[in-house]
Amino acid sequence: MRLPAAGWLKLNYKTCLANFLYLKINFMSNLISLSPSTKSILQSGSVFVPSPLAMDEQKQLLEPYQRLLTLYYIKSGANAVIPGAHTGEFALNDINVFTYWLRLVKEMTQSYGENMLLMAAVGGKDVLKQAELAAKYEYDIALVAPTAFVGKDEDGVIGLLTEIASIIPTFGFELQRAIPGSYNFTYDLWSKIFEINYGSKGASFNTYRSINMLNSAANAKRREQLVLLTGNDDRIVADLFGEFAFHGDQGLKKVQYNGGLLGHFATDTHAVVKWVDEILKSRDSDTWEFSLSKETLAHAVNHCNMELFDALGNFENSVWGVKYRLTSLGLLPGPFCSTENGRPGQAEAIDKIYGDYPILTDNVFVRENIDWMKKEVGIK
Hints:
47% helix, 8-stranded parallel beta sheet, 11% strand, alpha/beta, two-stranded antiparallel sheet, 14 helices, TIM Barrel, 10 strands
């Protein structure tokens, strides 16, 4: 058997490398980019709200209350109001509901918001159609739920994510493994994802999986461009305070969360913005001016979330808990959901924990603004 000459091998290697580089450059050039101003808003972090759907007892959508809820989030200081996420029951997996919601949030954000991001949650079997609709309505970025990756291997995930990113800029999302539609994100998969995405929400509810994502982000070539948001309901404050250091090929690298994207942020949002911004400010200035100590705040937020999200009931009434609290504030007519009905004792537990920590509530803010907000959206 005659082996190829060394010169042929060298030439063939160079040809393969050139083809690989061409394909990679071509692949990257097809991705939709964020504008510098939009990227700056994303990187400013703070509070991202996955909005619930406003419904009546017959599970029909209530547009005036959806507008009221959206206006409340905008005036509370949220960085983005996101349609289609878990707290919004994935827009009932109805493309017409999703389309209606995209239009409403865009209109309200343009009318009342300043320096806000238009982010839509996309996922499931209609992920490409949802991405196309979000792009059509000029949303800045799509939060891609792992429900889009069901049944796909890692190459399939990257292929689909690349396709979505050629329609609209993308943002990642890791769900806890207990939730149907979650995906096992390896370090290598995160590394490939971070070549495409502008960052990710980490909601694994697992310290070790969170470290896996953070480690990959710290060692990513695009590390300076990445925005990381915590979705870990069981350690919101600890995540936001944290500085996470990793040793890699290029030495010691550190990353931090820029903010949070959680169902917890979908109620008492004005108060949330205050304590989140205080945390982010204290990381740079080493000061602390909030009325609760750091330790007490961490405990109080975790306890609020435990009741709100029905953590001891395996999160089966998490959307109901958020809607119940919003109903208590007068922002919804009732905690009506498509499938959830609340757990016995959950309402009383939510009332008690928010009563124990009035600094974490929007009781005063809503009372002072509810009449104006209702008038703006046509609610008498």
